[in-house]
């Protein structure tokens, strides 16, 4: 496809032609003299997206222009997510042509400016081929490219970031700031906290260190504040801690304890669903946690020996633990709440191309990008189904040669993007420009395997997946070596050349050792072998342009943009899909891959029609007429009657991992009945099979998941979900009692406290009045001069809070909402219990919490008085005194109200709990996940989309909404 100044390259346009400076680009799909836009039929559509739960319109743009073969879903998502300009304004994009041109022209111009192309003709071919591939959904860049490239805003192209933090307060505060800026832009970041000294070590002043788990609380609160204040509904985070850190047990247990809190609060009537009003009181929920284990620990686990936890400052062993016991705690925590995941440190760094610069210590939130600290990676994914060819006789081939050419095109474009990209921090920009990390990957693997008659959990399926992954990465590094001869190797290559070439040999050796299974994967392996031979030859001569080339990302939104049936490396969700229709309405259809698979397996047309009809009616293949039992596994899916086993997922990851620069974003699903021992086995096998990272999810292990129906006690102890019945089923009607709060005003004479305060130099007064027998009921604030804007706003705020309290809103709700709110004035206060405040509002509600909330409630919110903090330093834990346990009224000496008196009061309870009601079975599905629930009578552990209310589906280790394209991850 190319040739460079170093001589003719494989696949050049003219055999033996002399290459100029730059790449010679070969046509793959396009025709000279014909623009790709002129080869398709365009049509205009109206995009109207509604929240089906209340009928409100989320988005509307009429008359948008797209090719006729694009699905309604893809059109809706691209129009609402990626078109730039204010809706309704002349500047608003209204055609896919404008979107693609905005991106492609920017890439072409940068490529020409930086000397990537041999001639203007080659630049034009690059332009046309890139346009064709995007137009025909052959591949897609990650979302930040569509958001930012070609616009007036910073042209950020990366979705994945890794930060770093050292053992100093300055570094920790920089971490909070840098993470916040990344969240603000809608992306996610990960980092390793293992450099921070443990709570079992001393500070230079002689006191005990706080430890990384303590600082995680602050970062979690920051992420929660940013996600609730902006358009991004979830701040994607990854927090990693090394297994030899002395605080590793506390780290493992953080989310387990919070899950127990969620259950207790839910049982007390609080709304603890994901996105619920009360879930914000729970900590550590904005991050994915992973423990970084090394070979030393895993071998100690294997042999049942002791393992040393090492001090961060000296590196000496300060405590020995039983490795089996610690690994068991890790498995128990993951079983209970899906966290923490596991990362295999020595395996990761064994495949590291730049170890002389630094170790790989962390990953992005979805665990597929793993490289140097303070770096980023831009992603792109290919649609594998676009390379499957089937002739009239049913013979199938994977077009390895065309696939390789598209990979070369995409890698070239991705590398060009680093030339003009902006980055959220200077450090990230410097590292990324010096190492030029790329993350090419693919989507639709599950659909491809089914269409070719391969079970996901089979040797043939793994063989084809491994071959495609090897060809993709080998071709990427070959192009990287060709680019190095044209525009130079990455800046860090000279220092890391030996290591980089060693890793290339490791990939090549794995490719040689891989088993060839059948007629589909064998030609792909042959093409991959040729590619790796070129990599070794050209790399030795030219070096490499990129320190990293490939990952397997979740491909959530962009997977929907490409009309993929499956995301990333995932299997199919189910055999029956939900499909939107042009002009409104929807229907359920059997996957298009099912007939292709049956034809590949040798079934006749009449048999195929009967089997498809059976699937349409039942949602599965069990007892389908004429279908052989040995072919059932081909149609196994992620959910349903024949769900793929946990080890089936792990083995598929192991088939692809040796041929990836990075790792794989994937969650291994386990049934609710899975045991802790099974989780332990999955994590152990992940290490044995050479994976870099692994996460599990046991169905229904988390309370904070909004399911389609809930009913306490319906399925025995510990089970709260009600299976969603088929639409035709009748449901019992339960009487729902509606509770309305009643305002209880304060008496004319009321006890009160007036507190003077100073926050960041601003002075004020707060008067807090209480009921004689029932706690706080009124707050007044005095700031600045009477008649000023600030004084007026504080008066209005005081009245709103006071009225809310008199209607029964609990003080702890206000405290959880308004503490950590940041704005000026902020800084030092004159209050010994609250030395620093992020704003006046932050100070006020911390002071009110200290004066009026019981110790347990305050402690859960992280609010303590100076004596309590001192006692913690002295003893290592809080032990509330009798006086503290009695704090509930106006002053600590106020008598505690009896339960009988509370029940006789006409004032409603502080938390008005609505009784759980059985939701009727949905009459209509709004996504494939909901359709699956109706079809199979089960509940999917997936959150509801914040934007449109549709139940999301899993995409790697994240979730994606089929309705509007929103994701819960970092891409």
UniProtKB/TrEMBL annotation:
Bias-annotated ranges (Low complexity): 910-922
Chain ranges of the Ribonucleotide reductase large subunit C-terminal domain: 158-697
InterPro entries in alphabetical order: RdRp_reductase_class-2, RNR_2_N, RNR_lg_C, RNR_NrdJ/NrdZ, TSCPD_dom
Domain Ribonucleotide reductase class II vitamin B12-dependent N-terminal: 47-137
Residue ranges, annotated region (Disordered): 1-25, 866-926
Keywords: Cobalamin, Cobalt, Disulfide bond, DNA synthesis, Nucleotide-binding, Oxidoreductase
Swiss-Prot/TrEMBL catalytic activity: a 2'-deoxyribonucleoside 5'-diphosphate + [thioredoxin]-disulfide + H2O = a ribonucleoside 5'-diphosphate + [thioredoxin]-dithiol
Cited function: Catalyzes the reduction of ribonucleotides to deoxyribonucleotides. May function to provide a pool of deoxyribonucleotide precursors for DNA repair during oxygen limitation and/or for immediate growth after restoration of oxygen.
Similarity comment: Belongs to the ribonucleoside diphosphate reductase class-2 family.
Protein name per the record: Vitamin B12-dependent ribonucleotide reductase
């Amino acid at each position: 496809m190319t040739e460079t100044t170093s001589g003719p390259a494989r696949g050049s346009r003219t055999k033996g032609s002399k290459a100029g400076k730059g790449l010679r680009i070969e046509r793959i799909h396009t025709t000279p003299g014909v623009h790709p836009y002129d080869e398709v039929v365009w049509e205009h559509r109206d995009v109207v997206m509604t929240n089906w739960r209340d009928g409100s319109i989320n988005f509307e743009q009429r008359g948008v222009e797209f090719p006729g073969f694009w699905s309604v879903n893809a059109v809706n998502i691209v129009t609402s997510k990626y078109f730039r300009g204010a809706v309704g304004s002349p500047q608003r994009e209204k055609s896919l042509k404008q979107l693609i041109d905005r991106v492609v022209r920017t890439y072409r111009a940068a490529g020409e400016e930086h000397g990537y192309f041999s001639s203007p003709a080659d630049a034009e071919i690059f332009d046309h081929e890139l346009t064709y591939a995007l137009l025909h959904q052959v591949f897609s860049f990650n979302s930040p490219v569509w958001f930012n490239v070609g616009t007036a805003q910073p042209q950020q192209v990366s979705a994945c970031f890794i930060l770093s933090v050292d053992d100093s307060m300055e570094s920790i505060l920089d971490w909070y700031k840098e993470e916040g800026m990344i969240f603000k832009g809608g992306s996610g970041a990960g980092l390793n906290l293992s450099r921070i000294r443990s709570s079992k070590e001393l500070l230079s002043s002689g006191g005990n260190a706080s430890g990384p788990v303590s600082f995680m609380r602050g970062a979690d609160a920051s992420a929660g504040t940013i996600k609730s204040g902006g358009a991004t509904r979830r701040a994607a985070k990854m927090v990693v801690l090394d297994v030899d850190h002395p605080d590793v047990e506390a780290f493992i247990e953080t989310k387990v304890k919070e899950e127990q809190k969620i259950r207790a609060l839910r049982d007390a009537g609080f709304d603890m669903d994901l996105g619920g009003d009360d879930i914000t009181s729970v900590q550590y929920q904005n991050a994915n946690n992973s423990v970084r284990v090394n070979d030393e620990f895993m071998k100690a686990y294997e042999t049942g020996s002791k393992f040393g936890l090492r001090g961060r400052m000296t590196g000496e062993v300060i405590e020995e633990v039983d490795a089996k016991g610690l690994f068991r705690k890790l498995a128990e925590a993951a079983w209970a709440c899906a966290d923490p995941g596991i990362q295999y440190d020595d395996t990761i760094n064994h495949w590291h191309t730049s170890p002389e610069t630094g170790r790989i210590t962390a990953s992005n939130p979805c665990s597929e990008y793993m490289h140097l600290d303070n770096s980023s990676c831009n992603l792109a994914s290919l649609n594998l189904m676009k390379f499957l060819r089937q002739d009239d006789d049913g013979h199938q081939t994977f077009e390895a040669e065309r696939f390789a050419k598209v990979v070369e095109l995409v890698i070239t474009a991705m590398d060009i993007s680093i030339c003009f990209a902006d980055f959220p921090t200077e450090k990230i920009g410097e590292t990324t420009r010096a190492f030029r990390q790329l993350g090419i990957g693919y989507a639709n693997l599950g659909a491809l395997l089914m269409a070719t008659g391969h079970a996901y959990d089979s040797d043939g399926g793994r063989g084809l997946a491994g071959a495609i992954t090897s060809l993709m990465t080998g071709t990427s590094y070959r192009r990287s070596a060709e680019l190095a001869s044209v525009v130079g190797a990455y800046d860090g290559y000279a220092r890391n050349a030996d290591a980089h070439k060693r890793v290339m040999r490791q990939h090549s050796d794995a490719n040689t050792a891989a088993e060839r299974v059948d007629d589909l994967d064998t030609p792909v392996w042959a093409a991959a072998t040729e590619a790796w031979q070129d990599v070794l030859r050209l790399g030795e001569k030219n070096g490499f342009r990129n320190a990293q080339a490939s990952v397997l990302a979740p491909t959530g939104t962009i997977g929907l943009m490409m009309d993929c049936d499956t995301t990333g490396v995932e299997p199919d969700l189910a055999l029956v899909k939900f499909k939107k229709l042009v002009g409104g309405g929807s229907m359920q259809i059997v996957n298009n891959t099912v007939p292709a698979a049956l034809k590949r397996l040798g079934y006749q047309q009449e048999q195929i029609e009967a089997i498809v009809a059976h699937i349409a009616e039942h949602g599965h293949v069990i007892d389908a007429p004429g279908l052989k039992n040995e072919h059932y596994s081909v149609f196994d899916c992620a959910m349903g009657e024949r769900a793929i086993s946990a080890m089936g997922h792990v083995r598929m990851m192991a088939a692809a991992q040796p041929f990836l620069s990075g790792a794989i974003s994937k969650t291994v699903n386990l049934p609710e009945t899975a045991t802790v021992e099974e989780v332990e086995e999955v994590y152990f096998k992940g290490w044995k099979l050479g994976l870099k990272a692994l996460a599990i999810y046991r169905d229904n292990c988390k309370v904070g998941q909004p399911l389609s129906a809930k009913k306490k006690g319906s399925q025995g102890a510990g089970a709260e979900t009600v299976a969603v019945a088929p639409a035709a089923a009748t449901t019992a009607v339960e009487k729902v009692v509606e509770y309305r709060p009643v305002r209880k005003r304060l008496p004319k004479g009321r006890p009160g406290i007036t507190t003077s305060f100073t926050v960041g130099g601003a002075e004020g007064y707060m008067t807090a009045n209480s009921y004689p027998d029932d706690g706080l009921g009124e707050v007044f604030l005095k700031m600045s001069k009477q008649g000023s804007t600030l004084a007026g706003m504080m008066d209005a705020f005081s009245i709103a809070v006071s009225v809310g309290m008199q209607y029964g809103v609990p003080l702890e709700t206000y405290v959880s909402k308004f503490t950590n709110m940041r704005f000026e004035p902020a800084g030092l206060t004159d209050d010994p219990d609250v030395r620093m405040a992020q704003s006046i509002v932050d100070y006020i509600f911390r002071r009110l919490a200290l004066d009026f909330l019981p110790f347990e409630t305050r402690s859960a919110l992280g609010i303590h008085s100076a004596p309590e903090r001192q006692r913690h330093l002295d003893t290592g834990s809080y032990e509330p005194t009798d006086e503290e346990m009695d704090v509930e009224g106006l002053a600590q000496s106020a008598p505690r109200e009896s339960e009988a008196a509370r029940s006789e009061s006409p004032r409603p309870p502080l938390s008005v709990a609505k009784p759980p009601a059985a939701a009727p079975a949905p009459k209509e599905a709004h996504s494939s996940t909901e359709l699956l629930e109706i079809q199979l009578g089960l509940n999917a552990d997936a959150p509801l989309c914040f934007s449109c209310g549709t139940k999301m589906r899993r995409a790697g280790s994240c979730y994606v909404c089929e309705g509007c394209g929103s994701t819960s991850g970092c891409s």
